[in-house]
């Protein structure tokens, strides 16, 4: 568990450096943590979840406007992961919107777009604070990641997942084992659990504290840190009880940025473990292969 407040507001140097160290430890040992005291109101979070549910409640006709798009379409509605490459289908509908550097969202239902815009901005603020702390935890200058990843034009992809109740949850996955592209993912959900993360070879079910965010490291954090902060493997399972909604935002570099290990993280003893690749091309690489439990990172290891 990690509190943003200690990171941002602490006047005491030793408290702040303790927070930075805890953040670094969480990234190194888990690639995952719960975030509290993050400053995003419960009202806004509830509104996002409510409006998301309303989007999936629209008629198929209304949602079809956004269906079947390509990877970089600003708004995309679909089922499973990528039905062009999935061998089995997953129990999941999704809505994906690129919300930064340009904001996009469906015009229906009323209010969705405004709510998502406010939420996306707040999410970026939280992530930027975390990335400052993470830079410092790596003995890099506070704005290192921001500058190097060109976050003023950083890509933020908002993904709303809808997992309807499933009669046979032991047989059907919501989302199979995968890692996320990008630096960090910020996730919240309605009151149904379903996220599992892999830790020391075991699946750990996550039960978030009320009002917390779930944060996980992504592939570009692993690339940038040359493997020091690995991206965490996770999955979503289905349940019989009700519709689970989760809202994730993947915060990544600017799409045109070449990302390779930071020179500061590379040495003769620790050579670059990944080849540099444009964020945009990496996303394409991930999209073109089925999610098979292996990270797309395997495709760029040196
Ligand atoms: C994702 C994801 C997990 C969840 O959208 O990439 O991992 O709990 N979602 O829905
Ligand atoms: Ni994910």
Largest sheet: 8 strands, mixed
Portion in helices: 25-40%
Radius of gyration: 18 Å
Give the termini distance in whole angstroms. 34 Å
Shape: globular
Oligomer: single chain
CATH topology: Jelly Rolls
Q: Total number of β-strand segments?
A: 14
CATH superfamily: B-lactam Antibiotic, Isopenicillin N Synthase, Chain
How much is the average pLDDT?
Answer: 93
Ligands present: N-oxalylglycine, nickel (II) ion
CATH class: Mainly Beta
Structure classification: alpha+beta
Number of helices: 8
Which architecture does the CATH hierarchy give at level 2?
Answer: Sandwich
Q: Please mark out the parts with pLDDT under 50 across 5 or more consecutive residues, or reply none.
A: none
Strand content: 15-25%
Word description of this protein:
By secondary structure, the protein is α+β, with helices and mostly antiparallel strands. The protein has one domain (2-298): Jelly Rolls (Sandwich). It contains eight helices and 14 strands. The chain has helices spanning 4-9, 13-29, 42-57, 60-64, 112-137, 144-148, 219-224, 279-287, and strands at 2-3, 32-36, 75-79, 93-100, 155-163, 173-178, 184-189, 195-199, 202-205, 213-217, 234-237, 244-252, 258-259, 277-278. The longest helix has 26 residues, at 112-137. Bound molecules: N-oxalylglycine (OGA) and nickel (II) ion (NI).
Topology:
Elements (H helix, E strand, L loop, with lengths): L1 E2 H6 L3 H17 L2 E5 L5 H16 L2 H5 L10 E5 L13 E8 L11 H26 L6 H5 L6 E9 L9 E6 L5 E6 L5 E5 L2 E4 L7 E5 L1 H6 L9 E4 L6 E9 L5 E2 L17 E2 H9 L15
Parallel strand pairs: 1-2
Antiparallel strand pairs: 2-10, 3-4, 4-5, 5-12, 6-11, 7-10, 7-12, 8-9, 8-11, 13-14
Helix pairs in contact: 2-5, 3-5
